[in-house]
Amino acid sequence: MVQIATAAVQTPLRYALRRRAQIPFGGITAAAGLFIFIQPGMALVSLTLFLAIYFVVDGIFNIYAGFQLEDGKGWVIFNGVACLPPGFIPWRSRNL
User: Is residue 19 within 8 Å of residue 7, measured between CB atoms?
Assistant: First the structure.
């Protein structure tokens, strides 16, 4: 709601692009908050699966990026491998 209010009171010429971006993001944020309030169980499952997908994708990209680097590749690959288990754990749960 604050994003929508801020976008409404900003000067149109100077902040035109920012204003155009804040109104949809404010609406999406308000809709997500309403969804979480109305359906907390469904929201919990949705957020859990979103984070699981994020961790898997982040891990894969970190592993790939680690093999492209010259210096410090071990830590980046380790970070990618460490991100994979939190991404796969929710998929193995029988409660989802």
Answer: yes
How many CB atoms sit inside 10 A of residue 59's CB? Answer: 21
- pLDDT tens-digit readout, 57-76: 999 999 999 998 888 888 88
The helix or strand, by DSSP H or E, that contains position 5, with its residue range, turns out to be: helix 2-9
Instruction: Quote the CA–CA distance of 85 and 90 in Å, as a whole number.
Output: 9
Torsion of CA 20, 26, 28, 31, to 10 degrees: -150
Q: Are 26 and 34 in contact (CB under 8 A)?
A: no
Kindly report whether the global pTM for this prediction surpasses the value 0.90.
no
